Amino acid sequence: MGAIVRLLDVHAAYGREAVLVGVKAEVHPGERVAVVGPNGAGKSTLLKVMLGLVPHAVGYVEVAGERVVPGKPPSRAAYVPQHASTILDMPVTVWDVVAMGRIGRPGRRRFLSRRDREAIAAALEAVGLAELRNRRFGDLSGGQRQRALIARALVREAPVLFLDEPVTGLDVPTQDSVRHLVDGLSREGVAVIQVTHELDASNLRLYHRIWCVNRRLIGEGTYEEVRRSGALAAAFGLPAEPGEKEGAVR
Amino acid sequence: MSGLWAPFEWDFMWRALAGSAAVAVTCAVLGVFVVLRGMAFIGEGLAHGSLGGLAIAYSLGWNLYLFGSLYTVGLALVIAWLGRRRKSGMDTAVGVVFSSSMALGVLLISLVKWYTTDLTAYLFGDVLALRGGDVAAVVAVMAAVIAFMTLFYREMVFLTFDPEGARAAGVPGAWIDRAFLCLVAVGVVSAMQTVGVILVTALLVIPAATAWQIAKSMKHMMAAAVSVALFSALVGLYVSYYLNVASGAAIVLTAATVYGAVTALGGRRIGWRRSFGLSPGDR
Description:
- The complex is a heterodimer.
- By secondary structure, chain A is of the alpha/beta class.
- Chain A contains 8 helices and 10 strands.
- The mean pLDDT of chain A is 86.
- Chain B has a single domain (2-275), classed as ABC transporter involved in vitamin B12 uptake, BtuC, CATH 1.10.3470.10.
């Protein structure tokens, strides 16, 4: 099966400061990819380049068959931002927030259709927020808000899902429910690309591939492969453990 | 009952009512997004900055409100452009542009002889002097605002709630934000003859700030803001008629009284700077 996300020699910069250098990678349908790296390594920037939110100076980015150019995000992609990016005191209901996911889809109508409403109701059911649909978003707990944002991504019915640290700050049961949801999507063939700070082995083994980023893509493969290559240790400046190469960088 | 109808035995009162109602709806609908986005200073800046355009039009004998609208839309676009390009941000851009434009207006006023009544009407509003054409103009502006909000309501809510998420979903944020800013500019100028430049921001902010305290959803907030604005316009006109006071001030004080009552009766606690659109929301 062909790649659904392709990055070829992608460079990006903020002003004169290079943030991403020569990134080359692919993601296939149904794959779960964890993007890891230290603070300031360019993980979120890489996600935003794929979403067309940050311009890439050089290179080629393709998502779900569409070439991504700055200001023109891929129409068949969904995005779950860090929940800190939303206004909490705005009187939007959970239903309103989830309905936002239907905006910008290919061939959408200007007003919500019956099919849109059914998709929103199904997504609310899937994340366990059906009974809170009329509650103000800002009145929800952090975990419930994150689930609402995931429901907003679900209703896009997109083949590619981008998540930026979706479980940071959530309690353990909510983290588990978010992981369960994302697992289910991956099994249905959705490619999932997720920035994560959770570096414990049990978490990283859940992903098909790890992208170890520190401006460059310094390691790529399964958790075992990137660990053995020394890329994880190199990215975080840690001493190599037994069986790892010392600071090996691809 | 006869007292209720007494003011409307005069044609000018019907025009005043129609004009005030149209301006109230325009300002309330725009105001909802002005306060939620923390843009009140922009509204204030556009209102005061329009003095430059009105002074130019007056000096050259052009239509005050038509040229004033075009000029203020120009100011809005310059503010948007500067706000995006400069690290100092939107508030600095507003401060620079509106004070420069207002200074230009003051300069021209000092050079050209203004009739006191013109200046008073501009500063404090004179809704009783509305002519048929003026009413048609404010109704047209109201229709444009309602049409824009009907077509782009969902995008506006999305962009206000989560600008980055909206752009990632393909919402043309820059285009919609500029169009909204232009509508605020036109709305501000259209409201001047009713409440005057000094009070126009109050009409933009107070009904929305009142509605915010009781709203459970965006549609609820929109409906409540329009209701408060229409109520204030009607009651303000009566007060103005019977007490023989300035209509703009009466309308704004009525709206402020409603705001005070809602706050006292236990509306949702929102910091006053935030509720009046003077600061962005917590994220």
